[in-house]
Amino acid sequence: MSSQNPVYSPLSLGETNISQQKHPSKKSTALALVGTLVIFSTVSLAIFGGFSNDDSDDNFGIAHVPYHKTLTTQNESIQLGNRFKNRYFEFKYEIVRGNYSHTNEDELAVKPFIVRNIERHSDGEPYDVYLHKIKPDEEGMIYWKFNLKATDKVVKTLVIRMIGINQTLNEGGKAEACLETFENCTEIPVDEDLIIDMPRADTLFLGVKLYKNIKIFRKAERCVRCSGLLSGFSVKAYWVSTQDHLLNISSTFHDDSGRVFALSPKTGENYAKFTYNFINNLYSHTEPDGSPVRLFDFNGLERVEDYTENTVFLRRKNPKEKGNIRWALNLRIDGKYVEKVVIGIIGIEEIANRGGTARACWNVLYNCIDIPIDGTFTLQNNVVDLSLDIELDEDIQIFRTKLDDEGSLENVSVEVYWRGQRENN
């Protein structure tokens, strides 16, 4: 664990093996110039921070003037949730704001694998952003590359949806998903999911060829049944383990949630430390009546003891639905005020790269900060109400520990220092 304690006060594109289909009425495809990828940003970074974005100008698609940018590429594959123990993972690209739902493993922005004669363009109307050909008389194409390899698990099902490819109909173009090579492709239907069961491949190529001078991924061609995706595409991967695991699963190991725990020091002292040990499900304190401490909120999560891997962890109960766990503490004591609070949570490394969030809020719900995954942090001034909330945005695992670990691991710790009440001047 880091010793830092922050303090807070209130391809070369010519080397690909993609088959190039020539449209009878069009010339062969030309290599498009590769420029700078663009960000489309209409709202504050506080709302969309953490997404992987195109490297575009902030005013792209906003000003009432035509605007366009050429797309850049990357050789590395996009990861589809194969780094951790995910059972479900969804990757999205939204054309209007240029948002990818995730970054690459190095945390740099995701880019297409192949771009030929394609640019991202706006006609000048607000939010009217799409992809089209730079040279209308030549074929264009854009493809993304995904990695389907993982240790001890395989992809059971891929569900692929593209929004705004209506103009590919009538030989305007073709949207397709290709497994392993560009010779093994399946066409993606318009306004429907493409479902691929047991793909048995290490690589997925996903893309569109433009034969005619058409526009793709336009928001105007939205799908009303597409779960909030306005334009672009989504790839959902459902993973299954290649090993038989002996599991003990419980979603009720924390009953009777909704309580706020009143933390106070021993008589004559001005310090108290509240801790939680996940492997043993033990707290440092009990309620005044001797009953166990209860969570303030516990939704959509389950505790899993994996006897095959000798581990215990917390994960989503339904891999497709979010879940959260929250503690709430009351630090009010008559005649005293809180000088500082030192908070640490360990075992939440997988929340990085948008796997989830861990936040501490004090006094009011909107007064919150992110909890670091590798150290402690300090709140100063008079904290009277404190909540610690961990939300799993993806199918990740937290508090993962060896079952035979006999150490007193403090997954959650809150140290509170009080002082005598300030005198009014």
UniProtKB/TrEMBL annotation:
Q: Which residues form the signal peptide?
A: none
Is Transmembrane helix one of the keywords? yes
Ranges annotated as spanning the membrane = 30-51
Give the superkingdom in one word.
Eukaryota
Q: Which SUPFAM superfamilies match?
A: Galactose-binding domain-like
Q: Which Gene3D superfamilies match?
A: Peptide N glycanase, PAW domain (2.60.120.1020)
Task: Please name the InterPro entries in this protein's record.
Answer: Galactose-bd-like_sf, PAW_sf, Peptide_N_glycanase_PAW_dom
User: What family classification does the UniProt entry report for this protein?
Assistant: Belongs to the transglutaminase-like superfamily. PNGase family.
Quote the protein name from its UniProt record.
Answer: PAW domain-containing protein
